[in-house]
Structure formats: structure tokens, C-alpha cells
From TrEMBL:
This is SRPBCC family protein. It comes from Paenibacillus aurantiacus. Pfam families: Polyketide_cyc (PF03364). The lineage of its organism: Bacteria, Bacillati, Bacillota, Bacilli, Bacillales. Residues 48-121 form the Coenzyme Q-binding protein COQ10 START domain. InterPro entries: COQ10_START, START-like_dom_sf.
Amino acid sequence: MPVIRMQLHIHAPLEMCFDAARSIDLHMVSASQTRERAVAGRTTGLIELGESVTWEAVHFGITQRLTAVITEFERPYRFVDEMENGAFKRFWHEHRFIPDDNGTLMVDTFDYESPLGMLGKLADHLFLKRYMARFLLKRNICIQEEAQRQASV
């Protein structure tokens, strides 16, 4: 089961980073390359504990839907979203925020399992893990830019 971990320093207060990471609207901006949009559940604003969102996007030329629910929520330090329905066999995505002297360290952990047994493991090795890492990095940079923009206002 692949695990993608990344850290990004953000020159913005903890609360701004936390809220930017749970913004449905900002997620759609960060995933515009896949035409991702919220189509059910929470479709705008800031997602909260117990709420779900269904995303529709085009990945690898195929329109897909994925529903994730917020299963853990410790404002402003951490929240977790988990797949309820979608293309993965499962995923667990932790967003952690650690204050430091110059802002916030955002730590992102994406732990997933592909479907289709050995075929899914082969896809992970050949392209899927790299694809997901690039997707998450683009999203995290968008969070960083938005939180820093808000902090400078």
C-alpha cells in the first residue's frame, strides 16, 4: 500500500492554513486541470467533521466520482478525510498543521490502496503513485499560496 508524505512551510498563521486546506472552493481551483468539481454533499465553503463531499473529475481520460468524508477533526491542528466510495480500494488522507516561528508547517499523508490486486500494485509502481504525488503537491502549493495571500492582506 503506497503512502505519500510531503511537508510544506507556509508563511501564514495556523488557522488560515487549516481553513485553506478544508476549503471546497480552493480544492476545485487546485484541481482545475482535472475539471474537478463538488457535485454532492458539501459543495462549497469549509468542510466540517462528519460531512462528505462527492468529487467528479477526469483522470486518465475517464470521468470518475469519489466521495470522501471527514472522519477526524482537531481544529486547527489536524483533520482526516477517508474515501467512502470511489476508484481506490481505500484511502486515508491526513492533513496536519504545526505552528513554528515563521508560520505553519503543513504535513500531508496520503495512504491508499489501489483496486485490482496485482494489477493495481503494478499501476502504483509504473505511474499512479507519481501521478498522485504531483496532484497532491499542486494542491498543497495552491493552499500555500492562498494562505500566504490572505496573511499579507
